[in-house]
């Protein structure tokens, strides 16, 4: 032992001394793996190709991590919607800010899957049968919470009672946009009664009467700051959502070209049409009305 051991021990070996205070006995204590239930999480990757294809693990983990993030996106968006209902605008914006970061991560993550070549994917695509991301109920619930409702999307979940319950609840609840418009009405903005009383189970469609309301907000941002800020946060959400859809489409094009999808759709052409969907059309239309 040298007199400098306290600071230099292990440095030459490129190892770090574990401090004596570090807890090592977890026989009777909460541990990392126990808290996170890692045995469950890490036993949920079960490739089914035989012999097992090297890249199937990538395919599974890409989907599972997306589903985990979607779970949090849904949690945050539902909370944001409830906070808008309670006129807690600042707190709602905090949730939306978090969702925006998750969306960026999800969009960026496509580059990992893009390392899967067409030939590699073709070697195990067959085992997927008719499974498809089209059957992601969390993805569909996020679309619903953002207002793009479509009751027909519940059809594919008929054999899955818990997915149906989750989606039916999202279908029948007012969307984030519905609650924002109700908040604006409470704040004195002239939101038409037809908007406030609409059937919230239907997809939101372009409502021209709202454009002058937003034109007033965008025409004097200082006077309408909190409404304006929320509008721009919603535009960010839609923008990010579309970027994810675009990267999905482009990844699909490079991996399966124009092959039909395992879910039974035409594949890339079907995904391309999703780029025409919009959550907050009036927030885009208002831009045309800005003088100049
Ligand atoms: C090799 C990679 C992938 C390919 C070739 C692919 C292909 C497709 C195709 C062709 C569809 C249309 C439905 C069908 O007929 O199957 C679809 C839908 C979908 N996929 Fe993927 N996908 C891939 C990866 C992913 C990943 C990683 C996710 C993340 C969860 C995902 C989520 C979705 C979702 C949510 C839909 C429904 C989209 C909509 O309704 O517009 N996909 N995918
Ligand atoms: N629809 C894809 C298959 C696919 O990507 C997939 C299969 C099972 C579980 C999730 C999937 N992801 C997205 O559609 C295809 O047509 O190749």
Automatic annotation (TrEMBL):
<feature type="binding site">
    <location>
        <position position="125"/>
    </location>
    <ligand>
        <name>substrate</name>
    </ligand>
</feature>
<feature type="binding site" description="axial binding residue">
    <location>
        <position position="248"/>
    </location>
    <ligand>
        <name>heme</name>
    </ligand>
</feature>
<feature type="binding site">
    <location>
        <position position="262"/>
    </location>
    <ligand>
        <name>substrate</name>
    </ligand>
</feature>
<dbReference type="InterPro" id="IPR037217">
    <property type="entry name" value="Trp/Indoleamine_2_3_dOase-like"/>
</dbReference>
<dbReference type="InterPro" id="IPR017485">
    <property type="entry name" value="Trp_2-3-dOase_bac"/>
</dbReference>
<comment type="pathway">
    <text>Amino-acid degradation; L-tryptophan degradation via kynurenine pathway; L-kynurenine from L-tryptophan: step 1/2.</text>
</comment>
<dbReference type="GO" id="GO:0004833">
    <property type="term" value="F:L-tryptophan 2,3-dioxygenase activity"/>
</dbReference>
<feature type="binding site">
    <location>
        <begin position="59"/>
        <end position="63"/>
    </location>
    <ligand>
        <name>substrate</name>
    </ligand>
</feature>
<dbReference type="InterPro" id="IPR004981">
    <property type="entry name" value="Trp_2_3_dOase"/>
</dbReference>
<keyword id="KW-0823">Tryptophan catabolism</keyword>
<dbReference type="Pfam" id="PF03301">
    <property type="entry name" value="Trp_dioxygenase"/>
</dbReference>
<keyword id="KW-0408">Iron</keyword>
<comment type="similarity">
    <text>Belongs to the tryptophan 2,3-dioxygenase family.</text>
</comment>
<keyword id="KW-0479">Metal-binding</keyword>
<comment type="subunit">
    <text>Homotetramer.</text>
</comment>
<protein>
    <recommendedName>
        <fullName>Tryptophan 2,3-dioxygenase</fullName>
        <ecNumber>1.13.11.11</ecNumber>
    </recommendedName>
</protein>
<keyword id="KW-0349">Heme</keyword>
<keyword id="KW-0560">Oxidoreductase</keyword>
<keyword id="KW-0223">Dioxygenase</keyword>
<comment type="function">
    <text>Heme-dependent dioxygenase that catalyzes the oxidative cleavage of the L-tryptophan (L-Trp) pyrrole ring and converts L-tryptophan to N-formyl-L-kynurenine. Catalyzes the oxidative cleavage of the indole moiety.</text>
</comment>
<feature type="binding site">
    <location>
        <position position="121"/>
    </location>
    <ligand>
        <name>substrate</name>
    </ligand>
</feature>
